[in-house]
Design a protein that fits this description.
With 241 residues, the chain is of the alpha/beta class. The chain is 43% helix and 14% strand. The protein has helices spanning 22-31, 38-45, 51-56, 62-73, 76-90, 106-116, 122-134, 148-151, 155-163, 178-184, 193-196, 205-208; strands spanning 6-11, 138-143, 201-204, 216-222, 225-231, 237-240. The chain has a four-stranded mixed beta sheet. A two-stranded antiparallel sheet has the order 4-5. Strand 4 and strand 5 (225-231) form a beta hairpin.
């Protein structure tokens, strides 16, 4: 039975429709002999001023992000303290060796993450296609992502495009070289166009200037309608009356 009060079904992208890029962080941590989730904790604990969070909101360009991301993740003073607090919260009592120094290459790590996150979950894609075919709900994507840096919809990208509109097309609208896009696996953008086409509405944090963490409300503006969306980080999200 179809519940008439259900108006839309919402999907996250990374780790749902596409493979999670954070798998690459776990591999990187093992290479660096870091305890599990050390870098994830460092990224999350930075809060809204962290390089990752600012890049997701479209506030800093790619190469500035690389430098800031490297600096954030190489900060063992804060990183070690945050990891100790994380272990206390999780009740992790095993002794772990924390790094005395770190030299994290933010570009290398981010590139691994983006290439890792380029593959589809064919089962989820087919489920979305069937939901679209049913014609009963709006199918919406909400993702902390980086599309505005490529398609030129962030203020930074628009400023670059205005200043360089007469230059040869060796760079994307956001000023990123073709070789760098290939390095990231972004030849068709951070979210490939066939994935975007699956949805009636696609909300990318870097395009709307907002991100989400955990269970939270965000407001996004589309076609003149303000949507208040409750995000719960599960594969399938339901928006009801």
């Amino acid at each position: 039975m179809v519940l008439s009060h259900i108006k839309a079904i919402m999907f996250d992208i990374g780790g749902v429709v596409l493979k999670s890029p954070f798998v690459a962080i776990a591999e990187y941590e093992r290479e660096k002999n870091l305890p599990p989730n050390y870098l994830n904790v460092s990224i999350a604990s930075r809060g809204p001023t962290g390089a990752w969070q600012r890049f997701e909101r479209g506030e800093i360009p790619l190469h500035e992000f690389y430098a800031a991301f490297s600096k954030d993740l190489s900060d063992v003073d804060n990183g070690n303290e945050w990891y100790k607090r994380y272990c206390l919260r999780k009740g992790l009592t095993d002794e772990v060796e924390l790094p005395a120094t770190l030299d994290i290459d933010g570009r290398d790590l981010f590139g691994r993450m983006m290439r890792m996150g380029a593959s589809y979950d064919v089962h989820i894609v087919r489920a979305i296609q069937k939901l679209r075919e049913a014609g009963k709900w709006r199918i919406i994507a909400l993702t902390n992502n980086f599309g505005a840096h490529i398609i030129g919809t962030s203020p930074l990208a628009n400023e670059y495009h205005h200043k360089n509109q007469h230059q040869p097309q060796a760079l994307s609208t956001a000023g990123i070289s073709d070789s760098e896009l290939r390095f990231l696996g972004w030849q068709d953008g951070p979210v490939p166009s066939p994935v975007r086409a699956l949805f009636h509405n696609f909300f990318d944090s870097s395009e709307v200037g907002l991100g989400y963490v955990g269970d939270s409300f965000v407001a996004v503006h589309s076609h003149g309608a303000l949507l208040h969306i409750l995000l719960r980080l599960f594969p399938l999200h339901i928006l009801s009356n």
